[in-house]
Amino acid sequence: MKSGMLAAETINDALAAGRLHDDLVEYEQAFNNSWIYTELYQQKNWGPARHHFGEILGGIFSFIDINLLNGKLPLTLNDSQPDHAATLSKQAQKVYKDAEPINYPKADGVLTFNKLDSVFLSNTNHGEDQPCHLKLSDNDIPLKHLSEFNDGRSEPSLFYCPAGVYEKIENDSGEIKFQINSQNCLHCKTCDIKDPAQNINWSIPEGGDGPTYPNM
Hints:
9 helices, globular
């Protein structure tokens, strides 16, 4: 939210000065001078430390780096593996003993809630007459994933999407169809980042569409 305000302020100042086509390089400087950059910089090693050293040693490393040194350790750890490559196929799961499928309990409506109820609370909305802003490079890949991931039960996007945008539909004859419910999209871009085949491209929908979170 703060980064969006900084961007809006930078654009407003440029428009007031009559700079309609300039590259707004001052936004980067404003961001670097903000508390957002300071907090993100302090936390830069938190995730990579656990990936490199494990939960215990990585946690100790992060505690020293963040809590004692305020993130000023002259060392930046990097994850060489992109996030989408960490999704294991059935074949890869046979190698990793800790990659067992997770059977999530049904939502109880008290502490846990189903995806569609949560989408309703976000008050997300997209014009039904606009083109789908979630595009597939290859329409056949999701169906191929049904046999490659999760013991053939589901395509990965059915699990990592928090809004139930992606759905597997089976008709009476047993034919399976992959459906995209773009109306539910929360604009988190998880699918664009996490899809193991990098087949999903999240593009910008019509202006003003998406979640509004009126009760937050």
